[in-house]
Design brief:
There is one protein chain. Helix content is 34%, strand content 20%. With 323 residues, it is of the alpha/beta class. It folds into two domains: 142 residues, P-loop containing nucleotide triphosphate hydrolases (Rossmann fold), CATH 3.40.50.300; 120 residues, SH3 type barrels (Roll). The chain has a five-stranded antiparallel beta sheet with strand order 12-11-10-9-13. Strands 4-3-5-6 form a four-stranded parallel beta sheet, with helices on both faces. A hairpin with a 3-residue loop joins strand 10 and strand 11. Helix 6 runs antiparallel to helix 7 and helix 8 crosses helix 9. The radius of gyration is 22 Å and the shape is globular.
């Protein structure tokens, strides 16, 4: 989805800005790609101020830190540290809040109040048309409607001009126009039944995967995700793409070579909500997963409740709160 940003200060006397032309205490930035956001955040690293990165999800915070070099944490963890006195903001500190539109209003207001009391600056980067907050939200959007707005509108994510047009139509709410363009370019699949459509979806997924593309199937319900995952797993095993089964949970088979997705933070186990991994083995008590450069052992209760196939992660729903 397009990436946009809102920049605002809780202290009107703060002079730290991402760019010198931002005269207003809040400037709203919209850009259909993450590059503008990450570049703006990286620009803060040269400042002689303490910069803290904040995101709703733990995985997003980790990616923010890796991509920008800013020490980052989740919004709830930061608020907890401030409330307990384990962390204090100082004058001149800068809070960079990524995907700010996903933060609830109470949480964002609490962070803004802490920054204001300390004489710090809060910079919120977010997209008003991205996933909304789980809690009551809308603060960045409301602020952006009340102050001068500066927008970045170039799409840097989609390289195909046709995909850019379709994305722009969807973003503007012109759904019928977008669907018609998808159909005209052979990107819309129709089927006589849901079962037939699911088979075609898995076949397309396997064709693209076999060709070397990094693809996932998307759904909004966990029941549909479980069905598609089962179909995909049959295809993978038939093709010899997987090794031995190391666990079977509610008829779902977890095999060596399976790509999986963590659905809950377990810092003690070394896995985060939304983190991808590859099953490398297992024993009678756990499944062994490699995530990035780390090897973790996930107990079977975590596997049963919070481990999903990466083929159909069922993640296109409202986000979870991460602590």
């Amino acid at each position: 989805m397009p990436c946009s940003g809102a920049l605002f200060s809780t202290n009107k006397h703060s002079i730290i800005c991402l760019e010198s032309e931002f005269k207003s205490p809040l400037a709203h930035r919209e850009s259909p790609g993450r590059r503008g956001c990450r570049g703006a955040q990286r620009g803060l690293r040269g400042l002689r101020h303490r910069v803290l990165g904040v995101s709703l999800a733990a995985r997003a915070a980790r990616e923010l830190q890796a991509g920008s070099g800013i020490a980052s944490t989740t919004a709830h963890s930061l608020q907890g540290a401030l409330d307990s006195g384990r962390l204090r903001l100082g004058e001149g500190d800068v809070l960079v809040i990524d995907e700010a539109g996903m933060l609830g209003t109470r949480l964002m207001a609490g962070l803004a109040a802490e920054a204001g009391r300390a004489g710090a600056k809060m910079i919120a980067v977010g997209d008003p048309k991205q996933l909304p907050a789980v809690e009551a939200g809308g603060l960045p959007q409301a602020l952006a409607q009340r102050v001068e707005v500066v927008s970045l509108v170039e799409n840097r994510r989609q390289a195909d001009p046709e995909e850019r047009l379709i994305t722009a139509a969807l973003r503007a709410g012109h759904t019928e126009q977008a669907v018609r363009r998808l159909d005209q370019h052979g990107r819309l699949t129709l089927a006589a039944s849901a079962d037939e459509l699911r088979d075609q979806l898995v076949a397309d997924w396997w064709a693209h995967r076999s060709a070397g593309s990094d693809v996932v199937m998307g759904t909004v319900s966990r029941a549909d995700a479980a069905d598609l995952n089962a179909r995909a797993h049959v295809v993978l095993e038939a093709a010899g793409a997987l090794g031995a089964a190391v666990a079977v949970v509610d008829e779902a088979r977890f095999c060596v070579g399976d790509e999986v997705l963590g659905l809950k933070n377990r810092y003690d186990l070394g896995i985060l909500n939304g983190e991808l991994g590859l099953i490398t083995g297992g024993d009678e008590k756990s499944v062994h997963v490699r995530t990035g450069d780390r090897d973790v052992a996930l107990p079977l209760d975590y596997v049963a409740e919070h481990l999903s196939s990466r083929a159909t992660p069922a993640r296109f729903t409202r986000p979870r709160l991460d602590l």
